[in-house]
Write a structure and sequence with these properties.
- The complex is a heterodimer of chains A (113) and B (118).
- With 113 residues, chain A is mostly beta strands.
- Chain A has no helices and 13 strands.
- The mean pLDDT of chain A is 97.
- Chain B has 118 residues and is mostly beta strands.
- Chain B has no helices and 11 strands.
- In chain B, the strands form 2 sheets. In chain B, strands 2, 4, 5, 6, 9, 10 and 11 form a 7-stranded mixed beta sheet that branches.
- Classes of the chains: A mainly beta (113), B mainly beta (118).
- Chains A and B meet through strand 6, strand 7, strand 11 and strand 12 of A and strand 5 and strand 10 of B.
Chain lengths: 113, 118
């Protein structure tokens, strides 16, 4: 199985400041056949189901604010929240869907400083 | 509007069995890959099983911790996804979510709690 790691485990950012979360896969999740990275990002708040934010590493899901962006390729990826809002407090997960079974990173908890 | 509604959760003894159901609506179920994702208390997310469309043979794949114990199936006539869980262990205690797999998990149910305890 592809192992996903994330850093940091948690971070606290002031309102309006940038938050950056890193994700690394144990093998490349880039497909040369369709030139896509099979990597998604989710936001998970307590008591709610996870919410898809980003797919194909950098495509924002419909309705997701543009302060959320994804980047990276191959094995290294980044989720950036450009200007942290109070409602962004959550745990964020990366996930690969390149090879079965789909696997998630351990999550990064984002709080307000 | 896409809706995924899980049911069948509850308390079960170790070694016991349970079947979860997920009623789907608001999209064409027959052409959707579907998955079950769980979150154990204080832990992260884990995809326990996934099923392709019936037209693709209904092929399934599973996470290592549940392989041989859990079975994902679907009834396209009822727009329903199932998760049969056998030989349950205390570590299977979790909230189980039904999701669509696009192949990323784009729609999620609210989740159902399964507690394995004596």
């Amino acid at each position: 199985d592809i192992v996903m790691t994330q850093s940091p485990d948690s971070l606290a950012v002031s309102l309006g400041e940038r938050a950056t979360i890193n994700c690394k896969s144990s093998q490349s999740v880039f497909s040369s056949s369709d030139n896509k990275n099979y990597l998604a990002w989710y936001q998970h708040k307590p008591g709610q189901p996870p919410k898809l934010l980003i797919y194909w590493a950098s495509t924002r899901e419909s309705g997701v604010p543009d302060r959320f962006s994804g980047s990276g390729s191959g094995i290294d990826f980044t989720l950036t929240i450009s200007s942290l809002q109070a409602e962004d407090v959550a745990v964020y997960y990366c996930q690969q869907y390149y090879a079965p079974p789909p696997t998630f990173g351990p999550g990064t908890k984002v709080d307000i400083k | 509007e896409v809706q995924l509604v899980e049911s069948g959760g509850g308390l079960v003894n170790p070694g016991g069995s349970l079947r979860l159901s997920c009623a789907a609506s608001g999209f064409t179920f027959t052409i959707a890959w579907m998955s079950w994702v769980r979150q154990a208390p204080g832990k992260g997310l884990e995809c326990v099983g996934r099923i392709k469309t019936t037209a693709e043979g209904g092929t399934t794949d599973y996470a290592a911790p549940v392989k041989g114990r859990f079975t994902v199936s679907r009834d396209d006539s009822k727009n329903t996804l199932y998760l049969q869980m056998n030989s349950l262990k205390t570590e299977d205690t979790a909230v189980y979510y039904c999701t669509t797999s696009a192949p990323f998990f784009n729609y999620w149910g609210q989740g159902v709690l399964v507690t394995v305890s004596s």
